[in-house]
Amino acid sequence: MTLLKFVDSATGKSVGAFSWYATHGTSMSRDNKLISGDNKGAAARFFEDWFTSTTKSNSTVAINFSTPDIDELNKKAQKIKATGGQPCGKTTSQGFKVRKNNGSEFVGAFCQSNVGDVTPNVLGAFCTDSGKPCDFNHSTCHGDVRLCVGRGPGYPDEILSTKIIGERQFNKAVDLFMSATEQLSGKIDYRHLYLNFTDLEVDLDGKGKARTCPAALGPGFAAGTTDGPGMFGFEQGDTEINELWKKVRNLLKEPSQYQVDCQKPKNVLLSTGEMFEPYAWAPAILPIQILRLGKLILLSVPGEFTTMAGRRLREAVKETLISNGGGDFDNETHIVIAGLTNTYSQYIATIEEYGQQRYEGASTLYGPHTLSAYIQEFNRLAEALAKGEKLPKRDLSPPDLSSKQLRLLHAPWIDSPPKGINFGDIKQDVTQPKGGSFKKGERPSATFWSGNPRFDLLTEGTFAVVEMLQGERWVRVYDDDDFSLFFKWKLDNTTFSSLAIIEWEVPKEASSGVYRLRHFGSFKQTDGSPVKYFTGASSAFTVS
Hints:
Strand content: 15-25%
Radius of gyration: 27 Å
Helix content: 10-25%
Largest sheet: 6 strands, antiparallel
Mean pLDDT: 94
């Protein structure tokens, strides 16, 4: 991990930190239906809350009020009933956010790097039917990729796995943040270039020349990975395509002979670089970019470099900078790959990995010399940067496809709760536990009559809030930015009206006291009517 700490030069106050570390955001599986920032988002939340709690004595993230006897709390909670649904304004939920987004807060960003072959599911891949390790060479179980699935450290709880991998990145970032002593100085500069990656001439280090190819995917791509298995009988490492799938492929687009020869040893399953209806299936014109902050160099790459592909790119660029920098660069120059930046063009594997045609090689779009092309072109950027030279002007730019996008998702339908019920009313209140109060780790939940959340995504607001009673005043303590609070939407089975389920997994740092769950939402009464907003809160309950 590399961490860059930002400090206000006028006040000496830390204002943020960016860290780069390579791991896929696939702790949450494809079966997950909740919006999630995965392990990177979890790490960012933990880091920002940590910084706030260490710098503000009145942190609202972990509140510790003095509380009376638990029996007294239970009696008080029993008297506080659900509020019922109430109208509110478009921005009302913003006032209930625990963390104000006014630009003054510390920013902790957990950035991606050369992530291509790095999984957060660190326990390994196992067969879902037998529990035994998968076949190593093809990531299959009895020849079936669908049964071979990676396990995170919290297996079988993928939310716990997400939290653990997020915490590991957070803890390392804190270590680097607290120990950062080297202040960057020197030039700030950059070079940026668009290139047509479908037809680049590549010099193979004195071993002749080659060209990149139009984009294509091989059968190993359809096999997926242990983070998300594919289907249809494909396996990682496949280089053959059966006659049925060749016919299906050819219905879409039969690859040209040039493409077939260019992509070898990849067998072309989808010739996406030759498919243009309703618009191009794969990008051709890609941006590459190099940023300089003194002796910190960021390489912005538009795809997922594998571990070894990234290492080779970093080493090549560093050598070019040192050779052409006139002493401005040395072995202390630090090169970081910023992955998946500016656009996305799938994977970049080494030529050896390309030869294996596992998922990463099969998803390396522009042929066996894709990595060599990147190294060549980044070296040109690095040389220009080191010498202070401008790049030659090119007229290339990616096409603007915004007017051609297909939208297959229908607009949300009009919700109408049952007669006599308002939006925001409780359908199922918090069920009080047998002991009278909830313990740490337990999950109080409430179900509200609601509207489709796609009417308004409540940007900068929140769908869910946990409130704590302080004296006679309700204080917000958690919102849907928190890892412990869940907002789930579904349709009622009988009325087909929208329901919102708010669940709170009581954190270990939560104070004993009286709490309730609050929901914010929106709805439309007719197609042409304006969006209206509502809120409602559950009955109170006790946490001991």
